[in-house]
């Protein structure tokens, strides 16, 4: 892999564009309201930009390509869940959220169920968002390590610094206006990458033929346990390759996670009118689907042409050679950036790499802003909220660098699914009850549901049960709320 001057030029130009947008956004931030919700003056595309800017991040691009490398089209569930979550947000939640008179989701919960529910939900929801921030740092690190052959800690530090600088000054205006630029660049990049894959493989059938060849006609089959065409098809063409419960549960986690995430609610509150907020959410849904599909194609192409260092070591142990014409990458997380550097025209590849880094930066920045807003407004409640918000953002990124090293070998999207699950059990049920069924449930039991539902989710993750842990977490949360329904015996 060779990084040329044109790669660097395209990369730098893309980064400069988005950072300039972030810096110029400072002029729109005159107070805390401007920082957190854009002062309620945003148009349709700024709303969509804020949602897409955070939603389509490293998990949707680098993470989806990584998962597609190992499991084929089932990797599409993350972005499908994002699209369905945006539709649910537009159809069911825009109006009640905007009429709530609140600026955080947990403030809505507090008004109905009290301070204990607000604090517990805030902490747990922020934890879920923090896990997603770690996933963004991992994605950015994989990209930077591919480009510059630097160590993980240095790549993570650079990624965190860029994310911090991007959002700490401009807040939601950075995330929103930058998100509009990102939508344009990301759509063009995804379209280019997906088109190149289909052109090089002569269509989807040719892509699958290439995957079958590398997995069945080489020594890789001895470590992948795929012994027939049926085995390969079952893994790479099966939308439920990781099991129906796992894949559908992951999709549900993302749908409900979208409805439970502060950043997307801030985008809805930033719109000038209900109709603008709704259109912004629907545009986000439409854009996320083809982006996800293009990333799946990239991951599958890399499976057909590359092996990981781990696979190389396994082949060496059993005395086998690398298949002729097959490349080697450090880990499956490098699937997308290595495709760009090795298989796209150099200047275009540089633009795509810059867009990819922008995608991850804005995604991580938006989540960091959301977590900071929750902690400052729902937990700390300081006098100088703008200053403390910015300091909290810096603190979150420092913690993300330290903890990310422990997850450097994880599937990025698995962290994303866990993050969405935590946000769901901490926020979704109490928020939905507060918005649509006010006065129907006892505050004590709603508070218990937040703790118990999250505990069930975590236990399900640790125990590796045959069903996805999101079902267990939701069931525990809903059960507690039903016990606490008013006019019902305890």
Task: Provide structural commentary.
There is one protein chain. The chain has a single domain (5-407), classed as Sodium/glucose cotransporter. The protein is built from 21 helices and two strands. Helix 15 (309-317) links the parallel strand 1 (306-308) and strand 2. Mean pLDDT is 82; it is low at 31-39 and 170-176. With 490 residues, it is mainly alpha-helical. A two-stranded parallel ribbon has the order 1-2. It starts with a helix and ends in a 7-residue tail after the last helix.
Index terms:
490 residues, mainly alpha, Sodium/glucose cotransporter, two-stranded parallel sheet, 2 strands
Q: What is the SS-derived class?
A: mainly alpha
Count of individual beta strands: 2
Can you write the helix and strand succession as a string?
HHHHHHHHHHHHHHEHEHHHHHH
Rg: 22 Å
The biggest sheet, with number of strands, parallel, antiparallel or mixed sense and barrel status, is: 2 strands, parallel
Put the structure in a nutshell.
With about 500 residues, this protein is mainly α. The protein has helices at about 5-25, 30-35, 45-55, 60-70, 75-100, 105-115, 115-150, 150-200, 205-215, 220-225, 230-235, 245-260, 260-270, 275-305, 310-315, 335-345, 345-380, 385-405, 410-435, 445-465, 470-485; strands at about 305-310, 325-330.
């Amino acid at each position: 892999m060779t990084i040329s001057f044109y790669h660097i030029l395209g990369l730098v130009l893309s980064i400069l564009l988005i950072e300039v947008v972030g810096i110029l956004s400072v002029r729109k931030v005159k107070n805390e309201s401007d920082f957190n919700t854009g002062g309620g003056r945003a148009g349709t595309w700024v709303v969509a930009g804020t949602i897409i800017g955070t939603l389509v991040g490293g998990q949707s691009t680098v993470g989806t390509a990584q998962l597609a490398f190992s499991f084929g089209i089932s990797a599409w569930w993350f972005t499908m869940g994002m699209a369905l979550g945006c539709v649910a947000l537009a159809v069911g939640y825009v109006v009640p959220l905007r009429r709530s008179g609140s600026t955080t989701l947990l403030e809505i919960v507090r008004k109905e169920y009290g301070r204990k529910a607000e604090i517990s939900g805030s902490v747990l929801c922020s934890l879920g968002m923090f896990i997603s921030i770690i996933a963004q740092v991992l994605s950015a690190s994989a990209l930077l390590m591919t480009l510059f052959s630097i160590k993980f800690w240095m790549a993570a530090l650079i990624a965190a610094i860029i994310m911090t600088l991007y959002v700490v000054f401009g807040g939601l205006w950075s995330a929103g206006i930058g998100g509009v630029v990102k939508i344009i660049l990301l759509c063009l990049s995804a379209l280019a990458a997906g088109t190149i894959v289909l052109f090089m493989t002569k269509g989807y059938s040719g892509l699958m033929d290439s995957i079958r060849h590398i997995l069945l006609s080489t020594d890789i089959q001895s470590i992948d346990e795929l012994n027939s065409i049926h085995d390969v098809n079952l893994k790479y063409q099966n939308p439920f390759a990781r099991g129906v419960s796992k894949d559908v549960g992951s999709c549900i986690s993302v749908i409900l996670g979208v409805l439970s995430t502060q950043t997307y609610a801030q985008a809805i509150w930033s719109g000038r009118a209900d109709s603008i907020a709704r259109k912004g959410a629907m545009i986000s849904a439409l854009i996320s689907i083809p982006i996800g599909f293009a990333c799946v194609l990239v991951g599958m192409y890399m499976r057909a042409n590359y092996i990981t260092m781990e696979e190389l070591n396994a082949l060496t142990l059993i005395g086998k050679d690398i298949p002729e014409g097959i490349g080697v990458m450090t880990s499956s997380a490098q699937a997308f950036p290595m495709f760009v550097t090795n298989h796209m025209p150099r200047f275009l590849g540089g633009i795509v790499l810059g867009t990819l880094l922008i995608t991850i930066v804005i995604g991580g920045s938006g989540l960091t802003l959301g977590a900071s807003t929750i902690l400052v407004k729902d937990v700390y409640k300081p006098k100088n909220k703008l200053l403390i918000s910015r300091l909290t953002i810096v603190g979150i990124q420092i913690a993300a660098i330290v903890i990310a090293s422990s997850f450097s070998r994880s599937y990025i999207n698995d962290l994303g699914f866990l993050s969405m699950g935590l946000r769901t059990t901490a926020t979704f049920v109490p928020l939905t009850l507060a918005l649509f069924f006010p006065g129907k449930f006892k505050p004590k039991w709603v508070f218990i549901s937040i703790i118990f539902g999250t505990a069930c989710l975590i236990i399900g993750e640790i125990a590796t049960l045959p069903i996805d842990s999101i079902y267990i977490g939701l069931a525990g949360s809903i059960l507690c709320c039903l016990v606490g329904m008013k006019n019902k015996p305890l």
